[in-house]
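User: Here's a chain of 530 residues. Predict its fold as tokens.
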Amino acid sequence: MTFRLTSFICLVALLIQANSGVSYPQPTGPNTSKQNSDKPKYWILFNAKDQGTQPALSEAALVRRWSQNLPLDDTDQPVSAHYVSRLQHEGIQSITQSRWLNAVSARLSADEYARVAALPFVAGIQAIDPAIIITSIGGQDQGISPHMAPVMTQIQAPDFMQAGLTGRFVNVGVIDAGFFGADSANALKHVFTRDGVKRVRDYVNDKKTRGDLFHTLETMSDFHGTEVLAAIAGNDPIEKTQYGLATDATFYLARTDQGNREYRGEEDNWVAAMEWMDSLGVRLINTSLGYAKGMSNPKENYQPSQMDGHTSLISRAAQIAADKKGILIVVSAGNEGDDRSWRIISTPADAQGVLAIGATNAKLWNRIGYSSIGPESLPYLKPNVSCFSLYGTSLSAPVITGFAACIMQANPKLTNKEVMAIIEKSSHLYPYGNNYVGYGVPQASRAIALLRNQPLPPTARSVKASGKSFSLPVSTDDTVVSVFHKKDATHILQQEAMKVNNGKLALRRSATEKQTTVDLKKEVIEVIWE
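Assistant: Prediction complete.
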């Protein structure tokens, strides 16, 4: 993926500065004591934990587990203090401790690697991929107002507003690269005025204070989390524009990524932030970070075939969060769709338990070119759903995070998997999903009906066709519609924009085509070729 934040974010910076009076310092250098180390970073996995240790959870987290009937287990216990001490005796200083993975991260030379691997309590050592990347916003020199408004219409935001669903009483975690200027951005002033940001933590520079996180600019990508937060909860009364759905949610922010370069190894920061938010009782987390490729040692590169939901430790951690902690993780699918050497989603979007979000075009609602596609090898559908974003899946994911917050407000007793199912079933292509856009665009009206146990209108049907061509009658006001040609029930051969002539579509079947999805937005027709 090409990192393309700079020009767009510079403009956003100027807009925020003009409206807030914030002065922007020159970007400072990275924390060189860690970033410039010659030693590669690894996870050191332990084979046991100390018996009898107490769970590292707050009372709010314990109440959440009890309410969801999720038992406490050894993944809630901290790593062994004895093992950490033994590593220190060997001259190994742990950077991050993960109770979920039963591991610590550390930088190891070749000699230290060999010594640590020989320790009896070490179950294994795994390299930490320095290719964690922001699934970035694109680089056009334009503001976001004209481009965020269409997605609010696309997902039927007014329906949630009329139902009084604004994410109130829902705790939302945001894991990102930085939140510079968030407390002074017009679109987020209402959040900070009501003290809606409860806790912040900087895992890149742990000496930073809350004020530093909002007012110190290290790199231009420190705006990224601010844009993401606005896409979850933004509402600008001056521009009279709503950017996000969860305007009344409560937020916990974590900076885990230092954006001074595209490739960086901060997977352990991400896991630490996840565990911190879990310990506070956060149920919904947005993360617009993901792994693809770029290891400094090519032998340790991830391959597309490894985007399988369980190879990377970051996906394993995400799956633990989904299965054992009851957390709904909303992840941007990635912006590698145009990269012919990769094309597919990044990890942890490949984990089955996360809600992976792709991006659509504004008019046709099919896949926009950069949006990553789901691997054909997966036994489950990825991405799960999609929505419009001109600037990358970084901004489509937070829109759906706000959508999830509204559902959680409506029924706080729903589990993370039940919320995920409602979002999928509310989407406009359901049940005819595909590996380009998942089940399509979630619709607020359908989600509300599902929450009320009301029957959904019949918007999906199938027809059978034979031969190499088929004339399909359609009822639509659009002159051009989206058509997905598929090799099976979910995997796309080609997406096409087709013109409607006299109320009919002239479908032509390719040699390997088994099914065809016709997307009329208000109706989806599945053509099954015989």
